[in-house]
Amino acid sequence: MSQEKDKEISEAVMKGLGRVIEPDFKKDLVTLKMIEDLSVKDGIVTFTVILTTPACPLKEEIKKACLEALKPIEGIRHVDIHMTARTTGGGAKEGKAEIEGVKNVIAVSSGKGGVGKSTTSVNLAIALTELGAKVGILDSDVYGPNIPLMLGINALPKQVNNRWFPPKVYEIPVMSMAFMAPPGAPLIWRGPMLHGIITQFIRDVEWGELDYLVVDMPPGTGDAQLSLAQLVPVTGTVIVTTPQEVALSDARRGLAMFQKVNVPILGIVENMSTFHCPNCNHETPIFSQGGGEKAAIELKVPFLGRIPIDLSIRVAGDEGRPIGISHPESPLSAAYLKIAGNIASRISILNSEFQPITLGTLA
């Protein structure tokens, strides 16, 4: 095949890809500069699609749309599409210094305790990792730091020249107050002390290169939440609630607090939504049902998804092997993966509002 014909095909390919719309941004891949390294030789077409996050839930949908767009082009013998990602970050905001190497900070919060916030934090971090992202966890729940237990971490962080190097599990670096206090010791913190320890965890830890740092917040709307909002440009917060009205009332207060300090709301996760009996297959809404989605509609924020009550989630956490690791093919793992993908998409959209997307020029 002649070079002229390959050039003709190349131009037709770019024209075809210019009709493929990225579902989140509602613009075509060419305008968004998401196509790189296009090569046509003897009718064999290869190119790379640059996504805004490796955790993109629409990855396969975009790939199929590209293939469909190129089908009518005569002379194409084969199409080879490489899918990769350059995670976008929101950058510094309002003079707050970014955490070195960390592109996005996700605060996981709740208005009250007992709604499964820490369990959600762990499983979302695992799900984002499974989707291809580089993820870390900061356990800032200084009153009840349970993340190391849920991840089965026995190692302690290492300190070198006043820098902390956190232990890793499942490729996730983890820092927690649990490493700093004897098991069972009461943790009593006043405001300035709390601000200081959160500052140290953020500024003095070698996190490495991360797409997302998941921060497990203490329950409520106290000093820890304000300290985090004041110290770093938090990309957004995920509000975890159970469906009953008491929890939803507290969740609304937590959401309002983050809005007041200008932290975007990524959305609401409804935890413990229903119980599916393994013996009789009857589904029981122990804590009511649909409250999280109703609250999201009422408050005009995204509803990210729901997680049912299931014994295996509790057992997995107690054994230090989260459900995404112990039962990766289960519907529960699929639910966390879907929520993680929704969060990643929401972050990409938010970041594009702060910094218009030009993927072709990202570092």
Descriptive tags:
GMP Synthetase, Chain A, domain 3, Rossmann fold, 9-stranded mixed sheet, 3-stranded mixed sheet, 363 residues
How would the blueprint of this fold be written?
Elements: H1 3-17, E1 21-22, E2 27-28, E3 35-41, E4 44-51, H2 59-70, E5 78-85, E6 105-109, H3 117-130, E7 135-139, H4 147-151, E8 158-160, E9 163-165, E10 168-169, E11 172-176, H5 191-203, E12 212-216, H6 223-231, E13 236-241, H7 245-260, E14 265-276, E15 283-284, H8 291-299, E16 303-309, H9 311-318, H10 323-326, H11 331-354
Parallel strand pairs: 4-5, 6-12, 6-13, 7-11, 7-12, 13-14, 14-16
Antiparallel strand pairs: 1-2, 3-4, 8-9, 10-11, 14-15
Helix pairs in contact: 3-11, 5-6
Question: What would you say this structure looks like, in words?
Answer:
This protein folds into two domains: 3-86, Fe-S cluster assembly (FSCA) (GMP Synthetase, Chain A, domain 3, 2-Layer Sandwich); 105-355, P-loop containing nucleotide triphosphate hydrolases (Rossmann fold). Strands 6, 7, 10, 11, 12, 13, 14, 15 and 16 form a nine-stranded mixed beta sheet that branches. Strand 4 (44-51), helix 2 and strand 5 form a beta-alpha-beta unit. Residues 358-363 have low confidence and may be disordered. It is built from eleven helices and 16 strands. The radius of gyration is 22 Å and the shape is globular. It is α/β, with parallel strands linked by helices. The two termini are 36 Å apart. The protein has helices at 3-17, 59-70, 117-130, 147-151, 191-203, 223-231, 245-260, 291-299, 311-318, 323-326, 331-354, and strands at 21-22, 27-28, 35-41, 44-51, 78-85, 105-109, 135-139, 158-160, 163-165, 168-169, 172-176, 212-216, 236-241, 265-276, 283-284, 303-309.
